[in-house]
Amino acid sequence: MNVSTKKTLLATVALTTLAGVFASTAALADDQGQSPWLVRARILYVDTSTSNTADPAAGIAANSIKVANRTQPEVDVSYFFTHNISAELVASYPLSHQVHLNGAYVGGFQELPPILNLQYHFDGMGAFVPYVGAGMVYMRTMNATLGGGTLALQQNNWGEDIQVGADYKLDNHWLINADLKKTWISVGLNTAGGTNLVQLNPDPYIVGVGIGYRF
């Protein structure tokens, strides 16, 4: 996806969210007396792209490096500022990824990937509550074992994401959830001495299903 398209998508979601802020007149708590806190537990499938810049001097072609896909559990916490507007923080434990260059295993690394999104939840559809969101992704890499120790990854990396999802209320507290996020993030692949070789762009789609509890 090019930069112009990405900016258009982010702007569309941001405008939708802002429209929700001005349209919503609900109080902090739900109209059924619920607290503003919602906790979900989900199983995620992280589908990464094969995308990187090229470094002919190092023999690395464009789109030749693949960060392996992952399936993992996660816990997220949402706080509802109004009936329709919430902030969601997605938390997880450090995740391990394998890395392949032209299909050959070249090592692995761990990463910690919290995501913070602002969301707008649509109502008027009974127990079915769809939402959209957008926000920021932070990826901290650690324990890289790439190229036999000759390569390193940039540790602190920032990106953005957009999301669509839906909750289905089972009662006033319990719900089931499905969620899709698209993220854009760039991670520098460097020599052990710190010289940048290429930029990795895993840009994963994150698909999640799970359950939630509204306090």
Q: What features would you describe in this structure?
A:
This protein has 215 residues and is mostly beta strands. It has a single domain (3-214), classed as Porin (Beta Barrel), CATH 2.40.160.20. Helices cover 10% and strands 57% of the residues. It contains one helix and 14 strands, in the order αββββββββββββββ. The strands form two sheets. Strands 1-3-4-7-8-10-11-14 form an eight-stranded antiparallel barrel. A three-stranded antiparallel β-sheet has the order 9-12-13, with no helix packed on it. The longest helix has 21 residues, at 3-23. It is elongated and about 60 Å long. It starts with a helix and ends with a strand. Residues 17-31 have low confidence and may be disordered.
By CATH reckoning, the class would read: Mainly Beta
State which percent range the strand residues make up.
over 45%
What's the main sheet like?
8 strands, antiparallel, barrel
The structural class is mainly beta
- In the CATH hierarchy, the architecture is Beta Barrel
Short summary of the structure?
With 215 residues, this protein is mainly β.
Tags for this model:
single chain, 215 residues, mainly beta, 8-stranded antiparallel barrel, 10% helix, 57% strand, elongated
Give the secondary structure arrangement, pairings included:
Blueprint: H1 3-23, E1 37-47, E2 65-67, E3 70-80, E4 85-91, E5 95-101, E6 104-112, E7 115-121, E8 128-146, E9 151-153, E10 156-169, E11 174-185, E12 187-191, E13 196-200, E14 205-214
